[in-house]
């Protein structure tokens, strides 16, 4: 038995094969551009709901490093002020607003979505002014930029400091290893 394929059928098969190749090429080419955003959704650290301090740490770090030049620095400051204490908000409005503005000016196309992939409780410290909790976090950047010290590829390992304020945990700020030492429990 001989199989006969007409020219019209052969054209359809070739057309489908070419279409599949084009789709595969588009997926391979486009995946790196969207993988940071997709990976962030798939690998986001899920804070323990019963630990509001951990929730504050994750939300604060993600907001801090999620810079969007299109939305502007005022939107970033407003988001940070919603997550921190009244004193912390004043620091964001004065000092850290300048840092965010420098980043957005240097990288006008910046639209980074930061996602905490790992979170680990380090310890709790009582100071004269408040109680603090420190968390070690691994943050993935959808659009890494050169202005972030300690960034390795698209990942940053840092610390998140939260402060108890009126019986609620608030994000105090991200810390590097050296600054985190001041809030680590004494051995």
How would you sum up this structure, described in words?
The structure is a single chain. By secondary structure, the chain is α+β, with helices and mostly antiparallel strands. The chain has a single domain (44-183), classed as Nuclear Transport Factor 2, Chain: A (Roll), CATH 3.10.450.540. It contains five helices and four strands; from the N terminus they run H-H-H-H-E-E-E-E-H. The longest helix is centred in the N-terminal third of the chain and has 37 residues, at 7-43.
Topology:
Elements: H1 7-43, H2 52-65, H3 73-83, H4 86-106, E1 114-126, E2 131-141, E3 155-165, E4 168-175, H5 177-180
Antiparallel strand pairs: 1-2, 2-3, 3-4
Helix pairs in contact: 2-3, 3-4
């Amino acid at each position: 038995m001989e199989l006969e394929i007409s020219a019209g059928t052969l054209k359809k098969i070739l057309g489908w094969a070419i279409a599949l190749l084009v789709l595969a090429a588009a997926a391979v080419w486009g995946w790196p551009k969207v993988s940071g955003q997709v990976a962030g959704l798939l690998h986001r650290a899920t804070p323990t709901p019963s630990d509001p301090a951990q929730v504050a740490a994750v939300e604060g770090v993600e907001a801090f490093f999620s810079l969007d030049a299109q939305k502007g620095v005022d939107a970033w400051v407003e988001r940070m002020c919603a997550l921190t204490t009244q004193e912390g908000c004043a620091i964001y409005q004065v000092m850290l607003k300048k840092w965010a503005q420098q980043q957005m000016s240097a990288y006008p196309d910046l639209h980074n979505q930061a996602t905490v992939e790992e979170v680990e409780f380090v310890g709790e410290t009582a100071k004269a002014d408040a109680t603090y909790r420190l968390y070690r976090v691994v943050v993935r950047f959808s659009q890494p930029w050169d202005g972030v010290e300690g960034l390795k590829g698209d990942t940053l390992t840092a610390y998140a400091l939260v402060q108890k304020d009126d019986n609620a945990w608030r994000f105090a700020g991200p810390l590097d290893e050296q600054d985190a030492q001041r809030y680590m429990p004494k051995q």
